Amino acid sequence: MNKARLIWGATCMTLAVLLGVLTIVLPENSMMFTVGNTNMPIVPALILGAIGLALLLSAGKVPEVRDPKLEIVYDEEKVALNKRLETIGWGLFLIMLGGFILVPIDVINKGIWSIGVGVIMLGLNAARYYFKIRLSAFTTFLGVVSLISGTAQMLGMEMLGDAAFFIILGAYLLLKPWFEKRQIFGQAGEV
Questions:
Q1: What contacts 163, CB < 8 A, 6 or more positions away?
Q2: Which of 42, 77, 103, 109 reaches 20 to 30 Å from 6, CA-CA?
């Protein structure tokens, strides 16, 4: 049993129930969570509930034990290529971050910067896929969240970007066994 998932799942479920009760008990507009121009205070409770449920359902699963006789083999060329790709990707990310700090918000909408970061991170993983290198779950997650939150900012839905973070995290946790079975994510250079 995975104790960390059990604890975090119970914590998320407790917070979801608490937020749900507060939404019902408190006066109508005392809790605010706007999506677009509409107050939807129940959304955080639903998101936390979904994440908590996913964590609780996956807490009881016993991780697959690898055969110690099977040794992980690394392709040194792929490891070196991945390092070059990561260096390029993170260099572009830092340039984008510097541009965001340097250029006033009035000149370029901040949603453009988030979309740019998403394109960089997803482009890094597209290059990995092209060269048959395993994808990075972290940069894929960061790219998808940045792309969705940037699009939401461009459309004037600031809070949707924050909600997208939790929705994508929950979806990743639910789909993690599927990803592991197909070995989509992993360390670069594994053969």
A1: 35, 43, 44, 47
A2: 42
